[in-house]
Amino acid sequence: MCGIAGYKYGREQLDSGVLKDMVRVLAHRGPDSQGFFHSAPYFAGMTRLSINDLHTGNQPLFNEDRSVVLLYNGEIYNSPELRARLEAKGCRFRTSSDGEVICHLYREYGEDLFEHLDGMFAAALWIEDEQKLILARDLPGEKPLYYAKLSNSEIVFASEIKSLSQFTKLNLELNYQALWDFPTFLWVPEPETIYKNVFALPRGHLLIADESSIRVRPYRNLFDDSAAEFSDEEAVERTREVVCEAVRSRLLSDVPIGTFLSSGLDSSIVTAMAAKEVPNLVTFTIGFEDVADPYHGRADESPHAKAFADSLGVENHLIRVTEKVFRDDLMKFCYHADQPFSVSSGLGILSIARAARERGIKVLLSGDTADENFGGYSWYEYFDQTNVESKPVTYDGVVSFQNFGMDLERRLEILAGMSPQERAWAWHYYAAESEKAGIFNQDCFAEVSSSLRIFEKFNSKKHWESIDFIRQDRECYLPFEMLQKVDRMTMAFSVEGRVPFAAPSVMAHANRLKFSQLVRGGTLKWALRRAFSGLLPPDVTERPKHGFNVPIDHWLTEQWRDLFDEAFSGNSALLRHGLIQKDAGKKADAMLKDPQRLNGHTVFSYIMLNLWLENVHGNNC
Looking at the structure, do residues 363 and 270 belong to the same domain, yes or no? Predict the structure, then answer.
């Protein structure tokens, strides 16, 4: 989906050829059909991935008098209920598309209509009689939407930044703050992007543009902190209810459905619930090289996944991947990430999406975001030990939870002496400020702010409770890493990734759970495990979290060493753009060889940034 609203542009400047180019580079997001709309000063187009109403659901979609025009990407899961309600009021529908409800809801609720939607979407709503454009993004942030202001009343927008880059009048100046943040997070924190003049529309927000102004505002808060807490019994029962309903609603489809299936709790819950509703469910499992994983031991858990699929009687496809498979996919990974992105587990999603598409599966359900919502990360059990009054501890170098060469008690002692914002970084993020200062060229980055400001933005309290660290993950890590990873890597192969655990109802419910209902006595995801203990075998509900972790640290010193050498060579894009110091390679190499701490993903970020600069930035896609 993309478009241009140019209230002061002449028609000759809003050239239809530019719009066609913008649509062309989005073809992977929708190869089934294209749709365009033109009513000066508004020009828009989209590519459609046909999931529901395969024959009459092409866009744009309209209300009855065609005064409200919709182009959108996503799914409205509660559309059957909304359609029934609107038809009872006399609304007449032209299609069976889930999106058509949006057009009719505008006449009922105006800009407030988006409060009534349960779905994932990036929507562009043109109101002809008001000459007004409304852009909207779903509450969790599953579907991307970017925009750039051309003036106070002119805007260009698209589902991906590479589409915006086709608009030749847009200044694509690099954003040095985003570049600075990238090695810390492995992604660029929204609403900023890698370009200074391009922004992500925040999740749960509207952008309203008309001839007078362009303004951005939230349409609904995802979390209600005033809601009462649950008793333990209520927490377990309600968890089961909201998760089952989220999975059920996300099976809305006129095409075959599959699921990601590891051997873990989250994907097993999604698969088991889907298998009850979908007669011919297909599951996909990654089989990985059985190498030592510094986080969780042996890497390959595919035999457990197959055994579970067999117990459900569903079809299971094992996708055997190797270092070479991921290496061959790096350029595709780089291109479809859209911005610099170095979350290596996304390579696994890419492999499964490819396999699903080859087998005719266009919808995949994932178990992602259960860890953030229900307390699943390994370090969560140590929050209470470090959230105590403690004096800063003197130590040499950089220490985070990833210092696996350091005794755990010593790590926790050091983390306890940090500020809450420093500790939020140390639990599961990557490059420290001092490490970036040793690699980046300070002439370029003299005016950037610390990446720790992100944690201050989401929580400025001087003392964080244990639950605050989890809530910060829900605000930051969940949308910017997990949801972005699923969307970009599935859409690379024209597959729609759906995340039931990111349903607004699930997230709102999880926000009401106490820390003791998330983590109890060393048991992670306490309420979620209890909720499904009678529906899943003990082998699933009692097994510790494993996760899918790519051995980047190992590969960068062995099979992928040439990528390291290229990124830090005298002719690399990083050096040509003046972003790194001339001796940055030596410092990065020392980080890779650090026996105390895993720095592979920090170094991998510079490699991916180099690939992005060489192959995506400034290219005509």
Answer: yes
Question: What distance in Å separates the CA atoms of residue 60 and residue 68, rounded to the nearest whole number?
Answer: 10
pLDDT tens digits, one per residue of 325-366: 999 999 999 999 999 999 999 999 999 999 999 999 999 999
CA distance 125 to 558: 51
- One domain for residues 32 and 124: yes
User: Domain count of the chain?
Assistant: 3
Distance CA 455, CA 478 (A): 14
Examine the fold and report which residue of 521, 541, 561 is the final residue of a domain before the chain moves on.
541
- Tokens (6 digits) for 114: 């988006």
Cβ atoms of residues 393 and 524 within 8 Å:
no
Contact 504, 221 (CB under 8 A): no
Q: How many angstroms separate the CA atoms of 595 and 188, rounded?
A: 28
Residue 41, in any domain of the structure: yes
Residues 444 and 593 grouped into a single domain? yes
Cis? peptide before 41, omega within 30° of 0: yes
Cα–Cα distance measured from residue 457 to residue 466, given in angstroms and rounded to the nearest whole number: 18
Nearest CA to 376 out of 213, 489, 543 is that of: 543
Dump pLDDT digits (tens) for 560-611.
Answer: 999 999 999 999 999 999 999 999 999 999 999 999 999 999 999 999 999 9
- Peptide bond connecting 60 to the previous residue in cis, omega within 30 degrees of 0: yes
Same domain, 131 and 192: yes
Residue 493 near residue 357 (C-beta atoms within 8 A): yes
Looking at the fold, whether 68 and 43 belong to one and the same domain comes out as yes
Q: pTM of the full predicted structure?
A: 0.95
Q: Which domain holds residue 440?
A: 388-464+551-615
Residues sharing a CB contact under 8 Å with residue 317, sequence separation 6 or more, in sequence order: 282, 283, 284, 285, 355, 359
